[in-house]
Amino acid sequence: xxxxxxxxxxxxxxxxxxxxxxxxxxxxxxxxxxxxxxxxxxxxxxxxxxxxxxxxxxxxxxxxxxxxxxxxxxxxxxxxxxxxxxxxxxxxxxxxxxxxxxxxxxxxxxxxxxxxxxxxxxxxxxxxxxxxxxxxxxxxxxxxxxxxxxxxxxxxxxxxxxxxxxxxxxxxxxxxxxxxxxxxxxxxxxxxxxxxxxxxxxxxxxxxxxxxxxxxxxxxxxxxxxxxxxxxxxxxxxxxxxxxxxxxxxxxxxxxxxxxxxxxxx
Length: 266
Known about the structure:
CATH topology of the domain at 165-265: Serine Threonine Protein Phosphatase 5, Tetratricopeptide repeat
CATH class of the domain at 165-265: Mainly Alpha
Helix content: 55-70%
Order of helices and strands: HHHHHHHHHHHHHHHEHHEH
CATH architecture of the domain at 165-265: Alpha Horseshoe
Mean pLDDT: 77
Structural class: mainly alpha
Strand content: under 5%
Number of strands: 2
Largest sheet: 2 strands, parallel
Low-confidence stretches: 256-266
C-alpha cells in the first residue's frame, strides 16, 4: 500500500523523540494532520510554481480508494491540462517537463498551446516539438492568438511546423489588421485565392488599411467584386462608407438590408 511521504518538519521534530519516531503509524498520522496539500489543487501549485507541492497532492490522491474520483483517469487529464496551461502561460519548460513525468499518458491540451502562442513563448513550443508531441492539432486558434499578440516569431514558427493552409493564416491576419503578416504571406504565395482571402478577412474585421494595400499593390481578375455582406453583418458602417467613397467600382452587396435587419444593425 502506498504511503504519504513524511513531512520534513515531522522527521526533524521527532529526532528529539526517538521513542515516537519508532512508531511509524504515529509519524504517518502527524504527517496527514499537518500536511496542507489537501487544501491545494494542481493548478494552484503550478501557479507558485511548485512541483514539490504537485507531488504531494498526487501522493495524497493516490491514498484515496480505487473508486474515488481523484484516481479517475479523466480527472488526472483535467489536472494535467490545468497545470500545463499554467506552465505554458509563463513559458515554464521545467515545470512542463515535471508535469509530463508526473502524469504519464496525458495529452497536452489545446489551451496550453494557445497560451504559449498568445504569450509569445517560442521555447515552450520548441520543447513540445522536440518531445514529438502532436502539433498537427495546433490549429486556427493558436495561429490567431499569435497574430493577435503580434508575435511574429511565434507565427513564423507555427507556419513552419504545422500544415495549416495559408488561406487560414491570411484570413486571421487580415481580419485583425496585421498588415506585416499579410505582406509576408503574399510574399510566399500571391495567387488569386490568397488575395481574395485577404480582402474577405479585411472586410470581416472592417480593416480599411488591409483592403487599400492589397488593391493598390495587386491586380485582381476582371469583374471581381468585394461582397460586403460580412461588413454589413458585423455593423462596420464606417468601413462601408469608406469602401463606397474609395472603391465603389469593386463593391457589391447582396441582401444587405435583410442581413442588417437580421443582425439588428439599425
